[in-house]
Amino acid sequence: xxxxxxxxxxxxxxxxxxxxxxxxxxxxxxxxxxxxxxxxxxxxxxxxxxxxxxxxxxxxxxxxxxxxxxxxxxxxxxxxxxxxxxxxxxxxxxxxxxxxxxxxxxxxxxxxxxxxxxxxxxxxxxxxxxxxxxxxxxxxxxxxxxxxxxxxxxxxxxxxxxxxxxxxxxxxxxxxxxxxxxxxxxxxxxxxxxxxxxxxxxxxxxxxxxxxxxxxxxxxxxxxxxxxxxxxxxxxxxxxxxxxxxxxxxxxxxxxxxxxxxxxxxxxxxxxxxxxxxxxxxxxxxxxxxxxxxxxxxxxxxxxxxxxxxxxxxxxxxxxxxxxxxxxxxxxxxxxxxxxxxxxxxxxxxxxxxxxxxxxxxxxxxxxxxxxxxxxxxxxxxxxxxxxxxxxxxxxxxxxxxxxxxxxxxxxxxxxxxxxxxxxxxxxxxxxxxxxxxxxxxxxxxxxxxxxxxxxxxxxxxxxxxxxxxxxxxxxxxxxxxxxxxxxxxxxxxxxxxxxxxxxxxxxxxxxxxxxxxxxxxxxxxxxxxxxxxxxxxxxxxxxxxxxxxxxxxxxxxxxxxxxxxxxxxxxxxxxxxxxxx
Length: 582
What we know:
By secondary structure, the chain is of the alpha+beta class. About 35% of the residues lie in helices and about 15% in strands.
C-alpha cells in the first residue's frame, strides 16, 4: 500500500510510516520495494527520492545486505585532544589579563602548539568575555617596535645633517608642487588642519604615499623611520595610520568639486592643458562591512554583484590622465552621471567636452539625445539583442565592405563593416550604426555614434583606444591603490579618488617633461624607471641636496632639465632643493 493511499492512520502508525531521519527513510523505502513489491518509481516518489538515486540506493543495499546498512552514521569526536589538556592552563593565563596572542606565546614557550582560534574557543566555552583594550603598562613585557616621533611640522629639523632615503624619487615632484598653491587652496576651501599638521602638509603626506605607489597606505608603517617622505611633506615624521584614516573622514565631500577645479586650474598654468576627447567608465570598489545602505554593483573582474561604492571616472585621452571622479554615484542616478560630467566640465573650462567614448551600460538613449542636442560627439557600443544580431547577419555579403585599421593587432586589421542609419527610442533623428565583423569576436561589434560624416576607420580606431581607460583604471587599482576599502588604512572613497586624480596629474606632468615614449607610458613604468630610486640627502645652511644613485635612465632626467637649477621650497623654510644625478 502506498503512503499516499493510507487513510485514517493513528499517530503510533504514523511513526512507522513517516520516516523522521535518513536511516529510517532508507529502511522504509527499501522494505516497500523488496517486501511490499512496490515498483521502483513509486517507492522513490513516496519516500522523496529521484528515480536514479533510488536505483543507486538499491544497488548499494544489495552489495551490503544486512542490519549494518541501517545503522546511523557515527558522530564526530566528542572531545578536543589538543584543547582539553591545556584548558585549565589557558583559563589561568586569561585570569592574568593576557590576550589570546599572549597566551599562545606562553604555550609555545612550553612547547605546546595551539592556534589562536583554538584558544578563543576555549575562552568562549569557559565564559570569558572579549578582553578590553589594555594600557601599555597592563601588557606583558615583550619585545616591541620602537615608537616613532609624533608628526609635527613645527618640530621639523633642518639643521645641517645627512641621511639616506628609499623615497628619493619623491623630490622630483617638488618642481610641480611648488607651482600649485596648496596653502591658498586649503585656506579657500577650509580644509581641516591643525598647528601640528596644517592642511597642505597633510595633503602632501598623503600624496607621498600615492606617488610612491608600490605599497598600500598600511605598509607605510614599515618605513616610518625613513626621513625622506616626511621631509618631502615638510614634517619631522610621517603621520601614523590613525591620522591617515581620520583625516579623510574630516574632509567635507562637498568640497571635492571645488578642490578638483582649483587643482586643475593650477595645473593648466604649469602647461598641462585639458584635452578634448574623454573615455568614461564606472568602477566598483568592494565594500566588506555590514552597512545595509551600501548598494550592490557588478564587479567585472569577479563576474558577480557585490556590495560596493560605484565610482565614475573620466580619463583625458589627450593627456593620458584621470581628470574627473565622482564616488557619490547611486544606482538611481548612475545613468545621468555622464550629464553631470558634461556640466562639471563646462563650469571648469567654459565649454562642453568635444568627444565622449563609453560602453553600452554607461547611459541611456535619452541621454544620448541630450548629448546630441549639446553638439557633443559620442561613440558607444550598442547592446546586442538576438533580434538585432539576426537583422545584422541577415544582410547580404554585398552590403558589407572591408576596411583597414592601424591601431589593432595585425590579424584583425582588415575587418568588414556594415554602415547604416537607424532610429532609436527616445532619440530624435537618426544615429549612425556601424557593425564590425572579423574583429576577433564571434558576434559582430555594433557601434553607435552621432558623427554621421566621419570616416568609419577613424571612428573604429578611436573606439579601440577606449580600452585605454580600462587599462588606466587597472593601473590605478594596481599602482594608486584606489580600492581603498581593501587597504589596511580605510580612507574615504571620495577622498581617495581625489588623491588619485592629483597623483595621476603629477605623473603626467613629469612624463611630459621626460618626453617620448614616457608621455604615453603607464604609471608603473614611470615609477620603475625614475621614481623608485634611493638617494642621499644632505641638508646645509641654505640648501637641501638630493644625490641620486647611478641609474640607467638618469640621462633622461638630465635631458629634461630636472637638475638644471636649485628650486626654493617654501614649506622647507625656503631652502633651495638641488638635485644631483649620479
